[in-house]
């Protein structure tokens, strides 16, 4: 299928295309984000979305069943970038549940039947990230990558660790020291990923790992963050499953927490394509919810009126906002550590999604997040704090009258409740488990498979050394905003 898929710059004024077998994190001409695009006219025409239903009941054993078993790949005709089906790296991701949350609806004073929760925490690694990793690992396998890496607030690292182990690739994760929940850290360690705890936050980690992937090709790093357009192809499937569970009837609203803004971008792309293919009549409205302590999108979209504007995004407005953050030495801070991000790399794509889905953006504070997380657990089956931003955001939009009680709403619960048990324990008992852990006695781990995290300064030579590379590769190299977007060619 490869002659029908290509990569394309998202800036309409540029629109440069690249081959599907190239590895890039941005357009080499204008530095904008890339999409995976398809020449749909050359692909078998899909007459209706109901075509996909027959795959739902597979046992997943035969070759064909292996793909049908995945909640991502059973929609493979809608992400046809792979060249052959045996390249697909799948572990049965995306078999998630759309719950009709009537008890929670009653608490929120919404008509029973009108609130549904999409439990992406039921993925193998416990978060929605598996939807994207299966696609990005498939691309990594297509191009022969051996070492994969990401920066993460926790869930991406857990998902990367799991897929890397099963795909027999080396997984490397960059996490901000003390910034991710223990549940997520324990997963990265358990799956055998080389875990670098960088002194800094997510934004610092992403800049570093992107710089190494792009500017130090000799390290042979394939970047798994959501600037990788293949990740977002897999995340489109969350929307397909919601439509499928609702008999292909779109809800009035989709509400999702916003961090690095990959997920909402993928949702917008999914609906853009379904509309262009004539497969849906109605596009739901989108609400993206920031935490108040990491509210870049809300600040720029709601307060400063930044818009997609047919692809002519006001870059100066963004630059000005970031300069203000720098001046104030601002660091994002929220109990929803998964979305503690102040420089979301997918911002332009998120603006496009908000345009396509007639969207709104709001922010919710930590108390609202914690209260709604507890409600989802008490009257649903639980989620981590960041996920509950969607439900807290729904409350806000109901109060404002933006969403009415008669409208149908799906909130995306992005991560499992057990990802961050500390937040839950603290909510119910007042005990700060993080402090308890910091004071706890240390012993030397003796397990045969024990995999200790490595503490590293936010310094390129130190990081490359910790990754097992030669520090002379980066001698004198400065950390500047990554300008170079050379393809990564040496694996
Ligand atoms: N919810 C959870 C549970 C997440 O882990 C994330 C992102 C988001 C929401 C936000 O999604 O970035 O697509 O807007 N976590 C990333 C990580 C950043 O590294 O695990 P987004």
Overall pLDDT score: 94
Distance between the termini: 24 Å
Strand residues, percent: 5-15%
Bound molecules: ligand F0G
Task: Return the structural class.
Answer: alpha/beta
Q: Give the helix proportion (percent range).
A: 25-40%
Read across the widest sheet, the strand sequence of neighbours is 4-5-13-10-11-12
Radius of gyration: 21 Å
Give unreliable regions as ranges.
Answer: 481-491
Number of strands: 14
Largest sheet: 6 strands, mixed
Q: Specify the overall morphology.
A: globular
- Number of DSSP helical runs: 17
Short description:
This protein is an alpha/beta fold and 491 residues long.
Characteristics of this structure?
single chain; 491 residues; alpha/beta; 6-stranded mixed sheet; 5-stranded parallel sheet; 17 helices; 14% strand; globular; disordered C terminus; binds ligand F0G
Description:
The chain is of the alpha/beta class and 491 residues long. Helix content is 36%, strand content 14%. The protein is built from 17 helices and 14 strands. It has helices at residues 63-68, 102-107, 129-142, 155-166, 182-190, 202-215, 229-235, 237-245, 262-276, 296-303, 315-327, 347-356, 366-379, 385-400, 421-429, 433-439, 460-466; strands at residues 5-9, 17-18, 34-38, 97-100, 115-119, 147-152, 170-176, 194-198, 221-223, 253-257, 285-291, 360-364, 409-413, 454-456. The strands form 3 sheets. A 6-stranded mixed sheet has the order 4-5-13-10-11-12, sandwiched between helices. Strands 9-6-7-8-14 form a 5-stranded parallel sheet, sandwiched between helices. Strands 2-1-3 form a 3-stranded antiparallel sheet. Strand 7 (170-176), helix 5 (182-190) and strand 8 (194-198) form a beta-alpha-beta unit. Helix 3 crosses helix 7 (229-235) and helix 4 packs parallel to helix 5 (182-190). The radius of gyration is 21 Å and the shape is globular. The chain starts with a strand and ends in a 25-residue tail after the last helix. 52% of the residues are buried. Residues 127, 129, 152-156, 226, 257-263, 338-339, 384, 386-387, 414-415 line the site of ligand F0G. Ligand F0G binds at residues 127, 129, 152-156, 226, 257-263, 338-339, 384, 386-387, 414-415.
């Amino acid at each position: 299928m490869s002659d029908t898929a290509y990569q394309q710059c998202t800036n309409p004024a540029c629109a440069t295309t690249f081959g599907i077998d190239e590895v890039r994190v941005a357009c080499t001409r204008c530095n904008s984000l890339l999409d995976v695009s398809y020449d749909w006219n050359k692909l078998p025409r899909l007459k209706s979305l109901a075509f996909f239903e027959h795959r739902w009941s597979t046992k997943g054993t035969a070759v064909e069943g292996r793909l049908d078993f995945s909640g991502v790949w059973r929609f493979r005709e809608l992400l046809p970038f792979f060249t052959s089906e045996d390249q697909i790296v799948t572990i049965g991701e995306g078999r998630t549940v759309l719950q009709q949350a009537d008890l929670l609806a009653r608490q929120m004073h919404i008509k029973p039947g009108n609130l549904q929760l999409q439990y992406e925490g039921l993925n193998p690694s416990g978060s929605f990230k598996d939807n994207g990793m299966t696609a990005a690992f498939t691309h990594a396998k297509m191009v022969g990558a051996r070492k994969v890496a990401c920066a993460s607030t926790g869930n991406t690292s857990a998902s990367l660790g799991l897929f890397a182990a099963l795909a027999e690739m080396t997984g490397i994760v960059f996490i901000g020291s003390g910034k991710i929940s223990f549940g997520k850290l324990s997963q990265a360690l358990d799956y055998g990923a080389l875990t670098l705890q960088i002194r800094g936050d997510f934004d610092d980690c992403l800049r570093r790992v992107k710089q190494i992937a792009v500017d130090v090709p000799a390290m042979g790093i394939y970047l798994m963050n959501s600037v990788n357009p293949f990740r977002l192809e897999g995340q489109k499937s969350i929307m397909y499953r919601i439509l499928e569970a609702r008999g292909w009837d779109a809800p009035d609203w989709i509400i999702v927490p916003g961090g690095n803004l990959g997920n909402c971008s993928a949702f917008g792309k999914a609906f853009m394509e379904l509309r262009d293919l004539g497969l849906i009549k109605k596009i739901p409205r989108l609400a993206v919810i920031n935490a108040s302590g990491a509210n870049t999108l809300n600040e720029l979209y709601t307060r400063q009126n930044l818009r997609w504007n047919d692809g002519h995004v006001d870059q100066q407005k963004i630059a000005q906002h970031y300069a203000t953050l720098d001046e104030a030495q601002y660091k994002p801070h929220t109990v929803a550590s998964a979305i503690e991000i102040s420089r979301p790399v997918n911002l332009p794509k998120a603006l496009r999604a908000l345009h396509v889905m007639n969207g709104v953006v709001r922010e919710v504070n930590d108390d609202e997040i914690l209260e709604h997380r507890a409600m989802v657990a008490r009257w649903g089956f639980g989620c981590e704090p960041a996920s509950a931003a969607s439900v807290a955001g729904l409350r806000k939009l109901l109060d404002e009258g933006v969403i009415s009680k008669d409208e149908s709403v799906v909130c995306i619960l992005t991560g499992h409740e057990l990802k961050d048990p500390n937040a839950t324990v603290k909510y119910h008992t007042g005990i700060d488990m993080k402090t308890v852990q910091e004071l706890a006695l240390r012993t030397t781990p003796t397990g045969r498979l024990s995999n200790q995290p490595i503490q590293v300064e936010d310094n390129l030579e130190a990081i490359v050394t910790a990754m097992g590379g030669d520090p002379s590769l980066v001698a004198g190299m400065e950390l500047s905003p990554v300008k170079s977007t050379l393809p990564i060619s040496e694996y």
